[in-house]
Amino acid sequence: MNIVLLGYRGAGKSTVGRILARKLRMPLVSLDAEIVRKAGKRIPEIVAESGWEAFRDLESSVVDCYAGKDGWILDAGGGVVVRASNVERLRRRGLLIWLKVSPSAAVDRIRSDTERPALKEGKTFLEEVEEVLAERTPLYASAAHLTVETDGRPPDAVAAEILSRLKGLCLARPPGPVSVPGEAPS
User: Fold this and answer.
1) Which long-range contacts (CB under 8 A, 24 or more apart) does 110-114 make?
2) 6-27 as b/e: b if 16+ CB within 10 A
3) Under the phi-then-psi rule, with left for phi > 0, alpha for psi from -120 to 50, and beta for the rest, what region is 176?
4) Do the beta carbons of residue 65 and residue 89 sit within 8 Å?
5) From CA 7, how far away is CA 43, in angstroms rounded?
6) Which residues contact residue 130 at a Cβ distance below 8 angstroms, ignoring those fewer than 6 apart?
7) pLDDT tens digit string along 75-133?
């Protein structure tokens, strides 16, 4: 089974993924980095030249490649949940963990990120983040088996919580709904 980290930019997926990979001795892949490798272009270039739909098509092809693997940690791009087919494929062999971040914390963390083109034209950065998070929050919530809050917490603490919550789960169980004590089954 894979561990799939979901969440908006700045949630900590890459950093927490590296910590988990080290502690669990599992390979880690950034799906966004694989898109860049496959396209031979940075994400802003892909979007500027071909548009968001073409980017999402590339993302879906990378999801196809990695969703079928077993025993990986997948750092999924923030928008992977906008296509239900991506979520469906990732859930087949994956435990999906939503690293939840507030708009203000995301803005603080990603303010200097030049690798992402704007998702909403004519908005301030904070307005864009608030709007996109409002659209995606229900998608993250319905996709995730587990939700972990990241605001005001160092990545080591987020990773420790994930490891603690995973301790009681058997990662070799067949994919599907996962029941975690204290949470409603997904």
Assistant:
1) 110/9, 110/10, 113/9, 113/10, 114/44
2) bbbbbbbbebbbbbbbeebeee
3) left
4) no
5) 18
6) 103
7) 998 999 999 999 999 999 999 999 999 988 988 887 766 555 555 566 777 888 899 99
Name the CA dihedral angle for 185, 28, 161, 175, rounded to a multiple of 10 degrees: 20
pTM, rounded to two decimals:
0.84
Assigned CATH topology for domain 2-167: Rossmann fold (3.40.50)
pLDDT 10s digits, 55-64: 999 999 999 9
Greatest CA separation for the chain = 47
**Domain boundaries defined on the chain:** 2-167
Backbone angles phi, psi at 43, to 5 degrees: -60, -45
Instruction: Please report the DSSP string for 38-105 in residue order.
Output: HHTS-HHHHHHHH-HHHHHHHHHHHHHHHHT-SS-EEE--TTGGGSHHHHHHHHHSEEEEEEE--HHH
Pair of tokens at residue 89: 């494929």
